Amino acid sequence: MNVVECNDLHVWFDLPGGGQVHPVNGVSFSLAPSERYGLVGESGCGKSTTILALLGLLPPTATVAGSVSIAGTEILAGGEESMRGHRWRDIAMVFQGAMNALNPVKTVGWQIAEPMRAHGIARRAKARERARELLELVGIPAAAADRYPHEFSGGMRQRLSIAMALACEPKVLLADEPTTALDVMVQAQILELLTWLTDELGMALVLVTHDLPLVSQFCHRAAVMYAGKMVEEGPADQLSWESQHPYTRLLFSATPDLYGDEPVVSIPGAPPRLDTEIVGCPFRPRCDVPMDRCAAELPLLTTAGPGHRAACFRTESVVTA
Ligand SMILES: Nc1ncnc2c1ncn2[C@@H]1O[C@H](COP(=O)(O)OP(=O)(O)OP(=O)(O)O)[C@@H](O)[C@H]1O
């Protein structure tokens, strides 16, 4: 059974001056146990809003619609009270700036133990003991449980926030740019840790990142978002070599490679505003191969190969030809 089923997720924010902004428009995906799933796309395309919606952590100006089930249990329908029972227990998150997720005036051991106490999983002594085990699990000596966040380096703090997220043994871990602020060696260590956790503990992982090469190497599957929609989804390594959507192809062309074999090409123009209705394909104004029908019709995600979907009329015509 899939551990996550997200169907037709929508998020919109009411704006203070009236009007709304719609950063997530009908996102659907599923995750198998142990699966590492990448979510990529330009700034502002709705990646973070999508995963914050899964965790019920959006501000009160947000409205969330759609369905999200974790191991067969719907988590959105019951509102905040029911979400509180699932957050950290079934679905947890590692944030980009680990320091923001840690309380500077509490010891790290206390902070790792807190979700276990809050969810009634373990009482004080047992929770403290488990916190020490979790520290060891993420590569930090158990004795560090009595220290405060400022006593740790950036990479260590990111490990601490992973230990916190693991406290209740969630089925799904969401990670928003978990390695962006870290040097390459520490980044590699954190990725190794996340690989081990997914492979060995069976947790599914959603990784939000701008780092496309990382997604190709680290994730099993990935989705590309544009203007609040998924425009392509498939095996992560195929997205770079066999892109089916012009946006995916251009996004990879805009990514420098280590050997400098290919020139870096930026995508002209900017993503559309999300506070006005978009008619037709949202990528059409920037597309290098637009078709007439793209101006009026919205291409839907359709099969572009085994386990591969793309929302482009060109793909549709090749597949159905
Ligand atoms: N609280 C909010 N109120 C109004 N609009 C918001 C709010 N939070 C996010 N948005 C809007 O939602 C859109 C998507 O933002 P989001 O942070 O999800 O994008 P992203 O793809 O994660 O970008 P980045 O890669 O820069 O983190 C943006 O246009 C942003 O302005």
From TrEMBL:
UniProtKB keywords: ATP-binding, Cell membrane, Membrane, Nucleotide-binding, Transport
Membrane topology: Peripheral membrane protein
One protein family per Pfam: oligo_HPY
Stored Gene3D superfamilies: P-loop containing nucleotide triphosphate hydrolases
Membrane-crossing residue ranges in chain numbering: none
Superkingdom as given in the UniProt entry: Bacteria
InterPro entries, sorted: AAA+_ATPase, ABC_Ni/Peptide_Import, ABC_transporter-like_ATP-bd, ABC_transporter-like_CS, Oligopep_ABC_C, P-loop_NTPase
Protein family membership: Belongs to the ABC transporter superfamily.
Protein name: ABC transporter ATP-binding protein
